[in-house]
Design a protein that fits this description.
Radius of gyration: 14 Å
Distance between the termini: 40 Å
Order of helices and strands: EEEEEEEEEHEE
Strand content: over 45%
Number of helices: 1
Largest sheet: 7 strands, mixed
Number of strands: 11
Structural class: mainly beta
Helix content: under 10%
């Protein structure tokens, strides 16, 4: 069993930055592909970014490319989401998710929330306009 705990959310003005962190416990962290998803009020959960177990492969949804960076520190069992140039439409609850890398290719299923087995509780990010 893998437990995930997010932190780093908060209130920020448009154009500002935040760094989210997701601490994992339970198993060999490097064996897990990690992803960030977000859910705004009244909307479906959407993919934000994913990173392979070694950190060598990253994926992003188009709306955050060039603004967000996903990274991981396997020695600390932590995955990060650096968010720059934040926009009002980035406001959402951000959730961390994990799945064993052996389950499938990050290119095929990295963006699919149904492919992830472990989820954190989420952290609120609010961007004021």
């Amino acid at each position: 069993q893998v437990q995930l705990v997010e932190s780093g959310g908060g209130l920020v003005q448009t154009g500002g930055s935040l760094r989210l962190a997701c601490a994992a416990s339970g198993r060999t962290f490097s064996n897990y592909r990690m992803g960030w998803f977000r859910q705004a009020p009244g909307k479906e959960r959407e993919f934000v970014a994913a990173i392979s177990g070694t950190g060598s492969i990253t994926l992003y949804t188009d709306s955050v490319k060039g603004r967000f960076t996903i990274s991981r520190d396997n020695a600390k069992n932590t995955v990060y989401l650096q968010m720059n140039s934040l926009k009002f439409e980035d406001t959402a609850v951000y959730l961390c998710a994990g799945v064993r890398s052996s389950k499938g290719s990050i290119y095929v299923s990295g963006h699919r929330d149904s492919e992830y087995d472990y989820w954190g509780q989420g952290t609120q990010v609010t961007v004021s306009s």
